[in-house]
From TrEMBL:
The keyword Membrane applies. This is Membrane protein. The lineage of its organism: Bacteria, Pseudomonadati, Pseudomonadota, Alphaproteobacteria, Hyphomicrobiales. It holds the Pfam family DUF2339. It comes from Salinarimonas ramus. Keywords: Membrane, Transmembrane, Transmembrane helix. The keyword Glycoprotein does not apply. Residues 53-100 are annotated as: Disordered. Residues 62-78 have a biased composition (Low complexity).
């Protein structure tokens, strides 16, 4: 029994956390809003005082002291800012206690003594009363004075006494505005309600005096009564009642559990909470009720016991109650003629929409129940979006529920279980599966209904603001296409092995949608052509044109039978950008951004864009899957830039860079791995080509940044340079270095694959360092230069070893005398080249590099060559080094003699 009580307490704590978090957040938000309002009034008063000090009053005017004490007229006539829509004012700014009279002065800041005496003492006293009753009963039990019945009776009497005391104190005392949050009658009533919960639970779980049904009813009644009493006693009691109401079912267990009473009970709890929230204008309480109902939806979905109906009913009922509490009641009288979107209401409805899809996917829901539930949810949300502008986003949620129900629909299982029809002649075969017919009919009817309702609302005479109109336009133009794509994806995924989803019907469906949206656009053109701005009609026209282009793109992909939508969505984004450019509707730009985000997610899900890109080099599916989106988003960015340069156009340009880079990278891997771009192996040639491609993209971005300084090109230049550095450090320097792997090198000396792996990226790094001087910081230019130097030096060293050792140059192979001498000669040659460049161009950094190479050559000759070389090779090594050092000294002296100013201390060119 102790374990059960422990688990119950843990459940109560888990259930309380989100509700208390929401309460704390909303209270903090309201406090911040009030502080901002006080700061605004204080600034107005200060400005009025400054103005009065600058303008001395006439002789008959009051004294400055009197004037300063009076309320300035500007402050008296200053009206509070109007809320964005009707529900925000009562929901977010309404006080939780009765407002203080206007003539009362603002209370001074309370010290520790005032807070303890007026706030902490009240709440600590209420907690002490509740704990005192518990300890008193415990002491009597330990002394053997009271039996179980007496304990329950005394607990009930103590709870009734606390509640009665709170009511008497409420009627005889008036709340003090400055200390309203420490309302003493509310503390007594909260202690009584907590004691009542404990008494009922003890009578049921500890002593068995009452059965589970009666305990359930009593706990629910106490919770509802507590929430109703909160309308008189304050928000703390409402939080206790809400927590107790949602926790009551967890406190009652039964040998034969049934989930059906829960939806009914939880509906009454939510109704009581929404009612109190509406009466007292506590929006936090309504949000807490929605969160509690959502948590119970998860419980009913997980603990379905084979019966999903209670969970579906609960989600549907709670969605209807939330729509009424957050949308219908606040906006039923249309107090704001043109309200904008209510983000809180939309978020609550979105949460229940997600729970609806989860409920459909987690249990065995038959086709009839699925259609009834999904249809009812979609109809409810669509009606809410059409009737109330602040909930216009619910139309998109309705489309999401329909698509989610189709994705989770086990249509393959239903077709397999469907009995075969017998036709004359004794041949048994499936003519037209009834399950497939139901699946397609539901999707088509639901999609057309949502689109028609949203489109009709847009053409209605009642005006709409931009965001609600844009949401309805997206639902009207995108829902049928979304459903068509969802059906195609579901069937091709379910019947991939059966080949039961031919492309032709879907292609014809996409073509029909394209024709329908084109006809709608043609019909709307003369009606809204003369309108200015983002009117609902123009938004619908733009959405219809974009949907027609998207449907055509989808039809092309269906015809290609690739089962992928990346190309279609990219072409749709380009088409939407073209429509946005022609119609000058800024909201349509967001469609391009949304499509770009979806395409990016498709790229993350399937990087190769196709299961089998083909074996042909360059001319394969990768060229279509990545090349077409790259061109499409580059075109979209250019079209969007004609109107203005913003985040959407930059995002489109970024996607063009990303798709172009993936195209080049995967084509390199495809060519080097026999058509498998996801091969697990790699080589120094591949790493070198990938580094070269990254540097080429960095150079391209840098050149574009020279013509037009922009964030996208700047970030792209840095990102591709960093990517190339990663290929060099982790690939060419270690993982794919032929010195480490001992892989064979193809080709003759100097003309081999080492040139592709090391020399080619070195050249690109040098080009990047030169191009980046005007637009990049000094550290970037220096890093590119050092990268070019490192790659070039590595290529020379590896080329010497390849010439001496042959195809395999592993580090464990013993070097020859000619190889050792060649290393010394190479160091001297590099030193001479760097010093010559530094001396002729007066570049100090190049001279320092030459000195470093020369120092390395000296160290090698005197330490390595002296110990390993013999005979002529040793002599040639020392002779060559000596001649080089003498020649360098003479050249340096002559150059210094020609530049006396520089020799005297002039600043060199760096």
């Amino acid at each position: 029994m102790d374990d059960e009580i422990l688990f119950i307490l843990i459940g109560l704590a888990i259930l309380a956390l989100p509700i208390l978090a929401i309460v704390a957040f909303v209270m903090a938000y309201n406090t911040r809003q009030r502080v901002r309002a006080l700061e605004s009034r204080l600034r107005l008063a200060e400005s009025a005082l400054v103005q009065l000090r600058r303008e001395p009053p006439p002789a008959s005017a009051p004294t400055p002291v009197e004037t300063a004490v009076e309320t300035p007229p500007a402050v008296e006539e200053q009206a509070p800012p109007e809320p964005e829509h009707a529900s925000d004012a009562p929901a977010d700014t309404a006080p939780e206690m009765p407002q203080e009279p206007a003539d009362l002065p603002i209370a001074a800041r309370q010290g520790l003594e005032e807070r303890f005496g007026t706030r902490w003492a009240v709440w600590i006293g209420g907690l002490a009363l509740a704990l005192g009753g518990v300890f008193l009963v415990r002491a009597s039990i330990e002394a053997g004075l009271l039996g179980p019945g007496a304990r329950v009776l005394l607990g009930a009497l103590f709870a009734a006494a606390l509640i009665a005391g709170g009511e008497v104190l409420r009627r005889r005392t008036a709340p003090i505005p400055a200390f309203g949050s420490a309302y003493a009658p509310g503390a007594l009533t909260a202690a009584g309600a907590t004691t009542a919960f404990a008494v009922v639970y003890a009578a049921f779980a500890l002593y068995g005096f009452i059965g589970p049904a009666l305990a359930f009813v009593l706990l629910g009644a106490i919770a509802l009564a507590t929430m109703l009493a909160a309308a008189l006693h304050g928000p703390a009691l409402a939080a206790i009642g809400l927590l107790g109401g949602f926790a009551a079912p967890l406190l009652v267990s039964s040998a034969d559990p049934s989930l059906w009473p829960l939806p009914i009970y939880l509906a009454f709890v939510a109704i009581a909470a929404y009612g109190v929230a509406r009466l007292r204008r506590w929006r936090w309480l309504a949000i807490g009720a929605a969160v509690g109902a959502g948590l119970w939806a998860l419980v009913l979905t997980v603990l379905a016991f084979g019966d999903t109906a209670p969970g579906l009913v609960h989600v549907l009922v709670q969605t209807a109650l939330a729509a009424g509490a957050f949308v219908a009641l606040p906006y039923g009288r249309d107090r704001a003629p043109r309200p904008s979107l209510d983000r809180v209401a939309t978020g609550v409805l979105a949460g229940f929409a997600g729970l609806a899809v989860l409920a459909l996917s987690s249990g065995d829901v038959g086709p009839t129940a699925r259609i009834a539930f999904a249809g009812a949810m979609a109809a409810l949300l669509t009606a809410c979006a059409v009737r109330y502008a602040p909930a216009a986003g619910a139309a998109l949620l309705a489309a999401g529920i329909v698509a989610g129900s189709l994705v989770t629909w086990p249509v393959a299982y239903e077709i397999a279980e469907e009995p075969r029809r017998v036709v004359p002649g004794g041949v048994a075969r499936v003519l037209w599966p009834e399950a497939l017919e139901t699946f397609l009919a539901f999707g088509a009817i639901a999609a057309l209904a949502i689109a028609a309702a949203a489109g009709a609302r847009l053409l209605h005479s009642t005006p709409l603001l931009r965001l609600p109109a844009a949401a309805l336009a997206a639902a009207a133009s995108g829902t049928p296409l979304l459903v068509l794509v969802t059906i195609y994806w579901a069937l091709t995924d379910e019947f991939r092995s059966l080949d039961a989803a031919p492309a032709l019907p879907f292609t014809l469906g996409a073509a029909a949608l394209a024709v329908a949206y084109t006809a709608l656009a043609v019909r709307l053109q003369p009606l809204v052509g003369a309108e200015d701005g983002e009117t609902p009609g123009r938004l619908l026209l733009a959405g219809a044109a974009a949907a027609a282009l998207a449907a055509l793109s989808a039809g092309l992909v269906f015809t290609l039978d690739r089962g992928l939508l990346t190309v279609a969505l990219a072409l749709s984004a380009a088409g939407s950008a073209w429509v946005a450019d022609r119609t000058r509707i800024p909201t349509l730009r967001w469609a391009v951004g949304v499509l770009g985000f979806v395409v990016l997610m498709r790229l993350v899900e399937d990087p190769t864009v196709a299961d089998d890109p083909g074996r042909t080099i360059l001319l394969n599916w990768l060229l279509v899957g990545y090349g077409v989106p790259a061109v499409a988003f580059a075109l979209a960015a250019r079209l969007l830039d004609r109107t203005r340069r913003d985040g959407i156009s930059r995002f489109s340009e970024s996607l063009a860079f990303v798709f172009g880079a993936f195209l080049v990278f995967f084509q390199i891997r495809h060519a080097l791995h026999g058509g498998d771009p996801l091969a697990e192996t790699t080589s120094h040639v591949e790493m070198g080509l990938l580094a070269t491609a990254s540097l080429a993209f960095s150079v391209l971005a840098t050149r574009l940044d020279l013509a037009r300084r922009d964030t996208v090109t700047g970030v792209a230049s840095l990102a591709f340079a960093a990517l190339s550095m990663a290929f060099v450090v982790f690939g060419l320097a270690y993982a794919a270095n032929p010195l480490v792997t001992d892989d064979a090198i193809a080709g003759a000396p100097l003309l081999n694959d080492l040139a592709l792996a090391y020399a080619l990226p070195a050249i690109l790094a040098a080009i990047l360092a030169r191009a980046a001087r005007a637009v990049r910081p000094a550290w970037f230019v220096e890093a590119a230069g050092w990268l070019a130097l490192a790659l070039g030096s590595a290529w020379i060293a590896l080329a010497i070893r390849h010439a001496a050792q042959g195809a395999q140059i592993g580090i464990d192979r013993v070097p020859t005398e000619g190889e050792m001498w060649a290393y010394s000669a190479a160091l001297v040659a590099l030193a001479l080249a760097a010093l010559a460049y530094g001396l002729l161009r007066d570049v100090r950094r190049a001279r320092l590099v030459g000195v470093a190479f020369l120092a390395a050559a000296v160290v090698k000759v005197f330490l390595v060559d002296l110990a390993n070389l013999e005979g002529v090779m040793r002599a040639l090594s020392f002779i060559g080094l000596g001649l080089a050092l003498v020649g360098i000294g003479l050249a340096w002296q002559r150059l210094a003699a020609r530049r006396p100013a520089a020799a005297a201390g002039g600043a060199p060119i760096d």
